[in-house]
């Protein structure tokens, strides 16, 4: 009996010790997400050496003190930036989200830390195209702190993607009043573009560029975005200048290289375009670079390369989906334009429409799909929503003209097609080609 008492007492002590040990070291068994070595040209920069040293320092702190929530947040933010720079979204965004969610699960009193972690979570949800979730998370951050500019940025982005454009404008105005900088000016630019004010969009993006620090990834991004605005208005000279300026600051910036590739296509220098798109894709696993290559290979009649690249493209998007990245709209465009499969494209577009029926890009995609299916009346119904902001997107204007033309309003349709070709004379899509042919046919009848 006495022996049993000591046995039970010993077991009790061991149980208490196990509980104490678990509580103290429970996070040690949950390893810090490792940093992946970069590959290719972006692995040889001084920026990478500095980034790696900083991240390894944070990882070391967390191994020594797993409950260091500030270091955990900083590591999450670093992984978010690494996702942007490397394009390794399927790894870094889930890793960052895990770190940041752990901060939110354990921090109850530090309002600054709670606010920053909540904004970071919303930003990741935006990057994963989980827009409704991002809006709700952004509202939670607003309850914690309504004087920080960052929260209005995520609320602006979420409302834009959900098609709540008036709310997005209010959020962008508030953000700009609190912190007029690269991030707020770039949002103002995008909203002006949505509402058809291309000169105003270019003006705001120039302000964003001026507010940026040369060499930072964010500055390179706004330079490329400014270049794309010039490209959309047919100003290829200024577009090229911005892409080259970005490369002058960051020589391996893949989005600038891809921008030059698009200009090469417009100038019918297809060999150079293929070289530039391939170079961009080798630096960054970004689906849009592969998309451009498939489009180019199809144009050149290189079926073997087109099919192989298409296979890689779809495999990459599938990996993104498995990591929580919603890519239904992207798949709709790919299956419509590259796969020539409007029925499959429709399946993905309707899934996206169910989530955000007010977004003009989603409505434009559906209008284009129904146009390809020759259901012009249904296409017109989606175009009514897609054109409600008076967007001057040349592809949208051309599509509206084609639909009107086929519904019997040939004069107005032809005028819209001509307007689209004047907005951007360098369009080279199936729709713009059809539009040119219809306009030329109408003129020849006069």
Automatic annotation (TrEMBL):
The entry's keywords: Membrane, TPR repeat, Transmembrane, Transmembrane helix
PROSITE patterns per the UniProt record, alphabetical: TPR (PS50005)
InterPro entries in the record: TPR-like_helical_dom_sf, TPR_rpt
Pfam family, one: TPR_16
Keyword Ubl conjugation: no
Transmembrane segments: 5-22
TPR repeats: 220-253, 254-287
Keyword flag Transmembrane: yes
Official protein name in the record: Transposase
């Amino acid at each position: 009996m006495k022996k049993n008492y000591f046995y039970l007492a010993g077991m009790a002590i061991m149980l208490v010790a196990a509980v104490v040990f678990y509580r103290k070291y429970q996070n040690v068994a949950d390893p810090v997400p490792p940093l992946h070595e970069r590959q290719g040209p972006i692995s040889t920069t001084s920026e990478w050496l500095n980034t790696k040293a900083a991240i390894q320092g944070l990882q070391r702190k967390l191994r020594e003190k797993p409950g260091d929530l500030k270091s955990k947040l900083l590591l999450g933010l670093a992984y978010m930036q690494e996702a942007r720079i490397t394009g390794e979204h399927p790894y870094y965004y889930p890793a960052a989200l895990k770190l940041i969610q752990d901060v939110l699960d354990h921090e109850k009193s530090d309002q600054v830390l709670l606010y920053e972690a909540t904004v970071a979570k919303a930003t990741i949800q935006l990057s994963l195209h989980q827009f409704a979730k991002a809006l709700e998370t952004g509202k939670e951050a607003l309850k914690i702190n309504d004087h920080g500019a960052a929260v209005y940025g995520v609320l602006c982005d979420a409302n834009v993607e959900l098609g709540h454009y008036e709310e997005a404008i209010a959020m962008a105005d508030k953000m700009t009043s609190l912190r007029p900088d690269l991030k707020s000016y770039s949002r103002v630019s995008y909203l002006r573009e949505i509402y058809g004010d291309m000169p105003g969009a270019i003006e705001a993006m120039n302000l964003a560029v001026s507010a940026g620090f040369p060499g930072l990834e964010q500055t390179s991004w706004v330079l490329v975005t400014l270049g794309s605005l010039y490209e959309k208005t047919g100003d290829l000279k200024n577009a090229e200048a911005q892409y080259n300026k970005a490369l002058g600051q960051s020589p391996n910036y893949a989005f600038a290289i891809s921008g030059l590739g698009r200009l090469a296509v417009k100038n019918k220098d297809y060999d150079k375009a293929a070289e530039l798109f391939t170079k961009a894709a080798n630096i960054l696993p970004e689906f849009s670079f592969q998309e451009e290559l498939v489009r180019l290979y199809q144009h050149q009649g290189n079926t073997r390369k087109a099919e192989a690249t298409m296979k890689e493209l779809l495999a990459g998007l599938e990996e993104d989906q498995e990591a929580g990245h919603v890519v239904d709209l992207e798949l709709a465009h790919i299956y419509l334009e590259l796969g020539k499969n409007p029925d499959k494209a429709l399946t993905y577009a309707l899934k996206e429409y169910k989530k955000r029926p007010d977004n003009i890009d989603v409505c434009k995609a559906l209008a284009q799909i129904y146009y390809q299916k020759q259901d012009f009346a249904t296409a017109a119904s989606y175009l009514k929503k897609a054109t409600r902001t008076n967007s001057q997107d040349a592809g949208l204007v051309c599509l509206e003209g084609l639909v009107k033309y086929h519904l019997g309003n040939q004069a107005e349709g032809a005028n819209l097609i001509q307007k689209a070709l004047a907005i951007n004379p360098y369009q080279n899509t199936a729709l713009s080609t059809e539009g040119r042919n219809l306009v030329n046919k109408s003129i020849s009848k006069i």
